[in-house]
Specification:
Elements: H1 19-23, E1 39-45, E2 51-57, H2 59-63, E3 67-69, E4 91-92, E5 101-102, E6 108-114, H3 117-126, E7 128-133, H4 140-143, E8 154-157, E9 160-163, E10 168-176, H5 179-185, E11 188-196, E12 208-213, E13 219-223, H6 228-238, E14 246-249, H7 266-277, E15 281-284, H8 287-291, E16 299-307, E17 313-325, H9 331-343, E18 351-359, H10 373-391, H11 395-402, E19 409-410, E20 419-420, H12 426-437, E21 452-464, E22 479-485, E23 491-494, H13 504-516, E24 523-525, H14 544-570, E25 579-584, E26 589-594, E27 597-603, H15 604-613, E28 619-625, E29 632-644, E30 650-660, H16 667-686, E31 722-726, H17 744-747, H18 749-761, H19 772-781
Parallel strand pairs: 1-15, 13-14, 17-18, 23-24, 30-31
Antiparallel strand pairs: 1-6, 2-5, 2-7, 3-6, 4-8, 8-9, 10-18, 11-16, 12-13, 12-15, 16-17, 19-20, 21-29, 22-23, 22-28, 25-26, 26-27, 29-30
Helix pairs in contact: 10-18, 13-14, 14-15, 16-18
């Protein structure tokens, strides 16, 4: 058990450092940046899903004073927007602007910059593009057929052209054990095909970029991004600029859900306009443009599981198909990672996995909260419930018999990222969650009649905290921090870690305050850019607190060592090891004292000021850290629904969400993550689907916010019926025992909600979303196995 109140700030609810700025509208996002003599940019986008560009005429736009860029004005380098994969494994198919053809509706073709947005839009309309329209393909199964329209002839890997056959962007397979033999000996086998659509991220902030050319030939940028250093590296490579002349500012971000894990496509377009005009340029996308820029990976999951009659899994087989749209951002990571999401949930003595990623003429895909974990979890947890039903075993008991837990090897993000589970709150999550939801009293579908029917379902899942492992993998995963103590005893934390709005930087400040025993208000998170910080790979994979906080704690310990060495001289102590430090709220300072001697003490501020006056030097340190494991943040969701069998409406009446996040640094914000995961999962299951019109290639949801229903807090259960809790665990490798929570908060929700609907109706759904229309059709068919498309 954790020692109660052993921390002075970690685990306490405090006022956010950025709270006042955010709630008063004073926080400056990229779209708020205004520079002298700034031009405004607009992007001309393809109206066709697949077409050859025959000519582009910008003369009329230039005659009205606009600055224009086309293929002729941008770097001729093929690149990938996301560069956390080691270079030899990175697949590159994108140019800043296309030289030959467009591959999805909304793809950028040219761009203009003018003195106002209105002038830029008018100039945009004057550009004339002649297209040769080509056949398009949207279905991944049709795309891989012989004779299907081909998006690419070649792409680049390790600086070499490699052929693309039948639109296959990436393939991967893995096998362990004797799968066929173990299936033959299984007492029960379940098999099903589950599908989850691609959906738009719907983050609050659309993509924005501001670029200012500098007198030395360099550039300064404000961009929507989850990694300022990766943006810097890519721009340096594309525009042949030394990195000391590319300065990317960290700007608050209005949510992302993974949509800015890469350098967004508008960023190099904005840079090209700024370099050509020699003026600052601002480029802000509309909501409609943003919806054509990115979406979640859709997934078709063929899953087969075999189990013995006592409920132990004996074999598994999975085939995953995803269509990635027109560009490959990270399918080479997504496909192997999904094998890890599957294998790390439950022990499988033998397994066979095959994954393929397919190009189509649709919106490109990129990471979205969970990076495939919710899609895989929907399939696996639905199948686990089906096995439990077939064997007459309680679904919770079945999961407890088979889950990968304490002391076991789990794959994390795939077979190359293996580590040992060192903290495990699964049993606590399942027992407490079951008690809180009233699991033992859940209804039986066959006993329910009438218009309104209730059901309780559950799902468990996890997400890795980071992407590190004992052995090197294809992922670049490390971060760094710089901490200094000022002359008055206050502390500056300089880190490139991005905060998506969930309190990552707040947690880092708490970790530093705890390690140095100073009040939280004396720890400042400095405004930074790529010139003032050292590298952080990206805030993704639920690693913000675990990785960013761990390196901050590591550096804070180094700072404390230097602080103690100075304090020892002032307190006449021969060894710094004789010193300790405590917070003193009355002084508003950390106080260094001699162990065993209550009379000898000095504040941190006095030490820092004396070191300054006596010319001893600064008290500061900088370092980096790569974790050698990625501990699972386990989650369990229990959901009670009410289904209206006349309208098809599904209402969540109660929810219980539990997380094993180790030591919880920000308890109120962590609870908010679980609540956000519920509302996001509700949308994925009940409403959302970025469908295209196969006649035009256009999204049916053109305006999205008005055209397509997304879940909001209006659909959430009441406060008293929405319970969150945390397991009592500590992660040995995390800062003060912390793990992550962010992406994990969503991963088990789709399965839990689908299982609750099954408990209410006795109908298992294999395809998401479970819309009102699909639900009513399933009820009318009275076929529990019917798949509704």
């Amino acid at each position: 058990m954790k020692e109660a109140n052993k921390f002075h700030v970690v685990g306490k609810v405090t006022q956010r450092k950025d709270g006042i700025a955010r709630v008063t509208g004073q926080e400056k996002y990229t779209s708020d940046i205004t520079l002298p003599h700034m031009l405004h940019a607009r992007v001309l986008r393809s109206p066709y899903p697949h077409a050859r560009i025959k000519s582009i005429d910008t003369a009329a736009a230039e005659q009205v004073g606009a600055v224009c860029v086309t293929w002729d004005d941008v770097p001729k380098i093929r690149y990938n927007e996301r560069i956390v994969t080691v270079p030899e494994e990175l697949l590159k198919d994108r140019f800043v602007l296309p030289p030959d053809k467009v591959r999805h509706v909304g793809e950028a073709v040219a761009a203009v910059a003018a003195e106002s947005e209105v002038a830029a839009e008018k100039a945009l309309q004057l550009i004339k593009v002649e297209y040769e329209v080509l056949d398009a393909v949207y279905d991944p199964l049709k795309a891989i057929e012989s004779g299907a329209p081909q998006l690419y002839e070649t792409i680049v890997k390790a600086d070499k052209e490699i052929p693309v056959e039948n639109n296959l962007a990436f393939t991967y397979s893995y096998e362990e054990g004797d799968v066929d033999k173990d299936f033959a000996e299984a007492d029960v086998v379940v098999e099903g095909e589950y599908s989850s659509p691609g959906v738009y991220h719907l983050q609050l902030e659309t993509k924005c970029a501001v670029c200012q050319p500098e007198p030395d030939g360099g550039i300064s940028l404000w961009v929507t991004s989850q990694s300022i250093h990766n943006v810097r590296m890519l721009l340096g490579e594309l525009f042949d600029l030394p990195l000391n002349r590319v300065n990317v500012k960290r700007v608050p971000i209005g949510g992302t859900f993974g949509s800015s894990i890469q350098m967004n496509s508008i960023v190099p377009i904005c840079v090209a306009l700024a370099l050509k005009s020699r003026k600052p340029v601002k480029l802000v996308t509309t909501r409609e443009e943003d919806a054509y820029d990115h979406r979640r990976y859709p997934a078709i999951v063929n899953l087969k599981l075999g189990a013995s009659k006592d409920g132990h899994l004996v074999a598994g087989q999975m085939k995953l198909i995803t269509e990635i749209g027109a560009h490959n951002t990270q399918a080479h990571a997504f496909i192997p990672v999904c094998s890890g999401w599957w294998h790390s949930l439950y022990r499988l003595p033998s397994l066979r996995y095959e994954g393929i990623a397919v190009y189509t003429n649709k919106v490109p895909t990129c990471a979205m909260q969970g990076f495939g974990n919710p899609q895989l979890g929907f399939a696996v947890e639905s199948s686990m419930d089906e096995i439990a039903e077939r064997l007459g075993i309680d679904p919770i008991e079945l999961r407890l018999k088979n889950y990968v837990g304490l002391g076991e090897v789990f794959w994390g993000q795939g077979p190359t990222v293996r580590s040992i589970v060192r903290s495990d709150g699964v049993k606590e999550l399942l027992s407490r969650g079951a008690e809180k939801i009233g699991w033992d009293n859940r209804p039986k579908p066959e006993e329910q009649t009438g218009r309104y029917r209730r059901g309780i379902g559950m799902g468990r899942g996890f997400h890795t905290t980071g992407a590190g492992g004992p052995l090197p993998s294809v992922v670049i995963d490390y971060t760094s921090a710089f901490i200094k103590i000022n002359e008055d005893g206050s502390v500056d934390v300089i880190t490139a870690v991005m905060d998506h709005g969930g309190g990552t930087l707040e947690a880092i400040a708490k970790i530093v305050a705890e390690e140095l025993s100073v009040p939280l208000d004396k720890v400042g998170i400095s405004p930074v850019d790529t010139r003032t910080t050292t590298y952080d790979c990206v805030t993704h994979a639920t690693r913000g607190v675990y990785a960013g906080g761990a390196v901050a704690q590591k550096v804070a310990k180094q700072v404390k060592e230097k602080l103690f060495s100075y304090a020892a001289r002032l307190l006449d102590v021969t060894q710094p090891e004789a010193l300790a430090i405590r917070p003193d709220p009355s002084l508003g300072q950390g106080v260094i004292y001699v162990l065993g001697d209550g009379g000898k003490e000095i504040t941190i501020g006095e030490v820092a000021k004396t070191a300054h006056v006596k010319n001893w030097g600064i008290i500061a340190a900088v370092d980096s850290l790569r974790h050698v494991n990625c501990p699972p943040c386990y989650v369990a969701n229990f959901i009670e629904v009410e289904v209206d069998t006349e309208t098809g409406k599904v209402k969540i009446v109660r929810s219980v969400a539990g997380s094993d996040a180790g030591t919880v640094i920000n308890p109120d914000m962590a609870a908010g993550q679980l609540e956000g995961g519920l509302v996001k999962g509700m949308g994925l299951v009940l409403y959302e689907d970025s469908r295209v019109d196969e006649e035009t290639g256009e999204l049916f949801s053109q305006g999205y916010l008005t055209d397509l229903k997304a879940a909001t807090f209006c659909e959430m259960p009441s406060i008293k019926d929405n319970v969150t809790f945390f397991a009592d665990t500590e992660e040995p490798s995390g800062p003060f025992g912390a793990k992550g929570i962010g992406e994990a908060a969503l991963n088990a929700v789709p399965a839990a909600l689908a299982n609750a609907i099954h408990n209410a109706l006795g109908i298992r759904f294999y395809d998401l979303p479970i819309t009102k229309e699909n639900l009513l059709a399933a009820l009318a068919s009275k076929d529990k196995k019917t798949k509704i498309s």
